[in-house]
Design a protein that fits this description.
By secondary structure, this protein is α+β, with helices and mostly antiparallel strands. It has helices at residues 14-30, 44-52, 111-120, 135-143; strands at 5-8, 56-60, 66-73, 97-104, 125-130, 147-153, 159-166. It is 27% helix and 27% strand.
Length: 169
């Protein structure tokens, strides 16, 4: 969606972003994903940490309304949960960016496409993971040229399917 702009999330955006996360949880449940983002995840504390580290971003429509959010990290130490991958392999060992916590308010289409295009301006090698029950995200990733690379485990032991996209040179 070409009328979407992206900017860093501010503390003043927190209530709106938490509402976007709540809508994303409802969407997940409506689409058969009952086990991801439970227990109030992502919490305000996680969002505050993402904002303070400069890794939280919001998607803004032409009216200035927040219609999506995501976390994007690059140019820092590799993601600790991505060090070991099972039942597969990463496409490469080059530096990469990581996208986490993509969420849409449901008021605008193409949020993931905008997020990905924006991230690819900063790095040409992106990794992302998603819950086994999140079929919508898995389909989005495959449609956008990500390869399913294997399984990773979060710090709490939860399994995630890992994907990677590298732009061709």
């Amino acid at each position: 969606m070409s009328n979407i702009s992206i900017r860093p999330t501010t503390v003043a955006d927190m209530d709106e972003v938490m509402a976007v996360f709540e809508q994303a949880r409802r969407f997940m449940r409506q689409n058969g994903n009952y086990r991801q983002w439970t227990g109030g995840y992502p919490t305000r504390a996680i969002l505050e940490e993402d904002i303070s580290s400069g890794s939280s971003f919001v998607c803004i429509d032409e009216c200035g309304v927040i219609v999506g959010t995501f976390c994007f990290r690059y140019g820092i130490a590799p993601e600790s949960t991505y060090r070991t991958i099972y039942d597969g392999a990463w496409l490469n060992d080059k530096p990469y960016g990581v996208i986490h916590r993509v969420a849409s308010s449901g008021r605008a289409g193409g949020i993931f496409s905008c997020c990905l295009a924006w991230c690819l301006h900063y790095v040409d090698n992106i990794r992302i993971d998603t819950h086994r029950d999140n079929r919508v995200m898995q389909d989005l990733l495959l449609r956008h040229g990500f390869a399913r690379c294997g399984i990773i485990y979060l710090a709490n032991g939860d399994e995630r399917i890992a994907f990677q996209k590298e732009l061709s040179e």
